Amino acid sequence: MQRKLGLYEAGDAFIALPGGLGTLDEVMEVLALRQLNIHSKPVALLNTRGYFGRFEELIRHSIEEGFVRQEILSDIAVVDTPEKAIEFVENYKPVEKNKEEIWSGDMGREVGER
């Protein structure tokens, strides 16, 4: 836990390469912290051989179901090359999130309700 905390605090951006459960855990935690407005750092996922394609589908599905805010998509880039990851990070402009709206809206509604 201390190692992860140090990574989050020291980094200016997060670039994830394909990896195992530890990598996926770290990516999800970074995204959760962003949704909670705890940081405003970009997250680039290097989509080597399509590795993060299904992950991106899961995020979009979670948005459709109302569990994740649409705005998170401006903080994430699923890219095919390291150069595109660097370009995303260098050009990233965080969208300010209203702290009062973080938990409002459809968040937490029953699964399947529309």
Automatic annotation (TrEMBL):
InterPro entries: LOG_fam (IPR031100). GO terms for molecular function: hydrolase activity, hydrolyzing N-glycosyl compounds. It comes from the Eukaryota. One of its GO terms (biological process) is cytokinin biosynthetic process. Gene3D superfamilies: 3.40.50.450. It holds the Pfam family Lysine_decarbox. SUPFAM superfamilies: MCP/YpsA-like. GO terms for cellular component: cytosol. PANTHER family: LOG FAMILY PROTEIN YJL055W (PTHR31223). This is Cytokinin riboside 5'-monophosphate phosphoribohydrolase. It comes from Rhodosorus marinus.
